[in-house]
Amino acid sequence: MIISDTYRFVFIHIPKCAGSTVRSRLQVFDDTGGAYTNRVEKHSELGRLDYVHMPLFTIKEFFPSEFKKIQSYNTFTIVRDPFARFPSSFSQHMKRYGAGAIKDLSLREVKKELNRVIDYLSGLSFRQGLLPAEYIHFQPQVDYIYLDNEKIVGNIYTVEQINILLKEVESLVGKKRGAETTKEVEAVNQAVVYRNQAIRALVGPLLPVARTILRPLLPNSVKKSLRSTVYVPQGRYFDDIFESDYVFDFINDFYRQDIGLLKSIELESSKEVCGGL
To answer: Exposed, middle or buried, 88 (CB in 10 Å: 0-12/13-18/19+)?
Structure first.
């Protein structure tokens, strides 16, 4: 979360919605000293807390002064299709709190861990509550936008509209100062995995040496070519898993409100486009 008292705006960081990309551009305007941008610590009442990704009900109850600013300042956030967000959330969870980076795991290991996560989330007895820090990347997006069925965050953009958000912030801070920090984002980083298990077994053990000795010596064109040979986009490799009926049904149920949110945003965008013709 970025809070600019100087320019009276707040950026709400919903996990796995390209928030880190935007946050890096807006960090210069943060007046909290980074209190909500890179911090996972123990809270006296909540226990281990991810201060970066706190939903609105947590902010209101435990950080009332910050919540008042959210109510009175210009507010921005980014949302993402739940069916694309869930695999990204799972990948982040595995990397930080699970068995390790997905690219280093076999399909069997990924399926096992995926079942564990879905079983845990499906077994929760609540739908509006703070998830533990190790599961915060699965927190529903509506929890960062609505509170008691009231829309709190005023400006909502999809991941495809990041540059529109940056231009809106630029209009608040002034182009002269904001030009560099809010320049257009070319693309959001894409997670990758080994092309197949044979390449994983062959290349995996050699990576530490390759990264420290060979990488600095190779031209960028060669590094890019090798990368495309060894890796494929994560989504393509795990299509069979994340597009299975089991996962689809879980996302459709657990993120039902998020799906409705995205549909309403897309409908509103289409109306604006048609209105401008």
So the answer is: buried
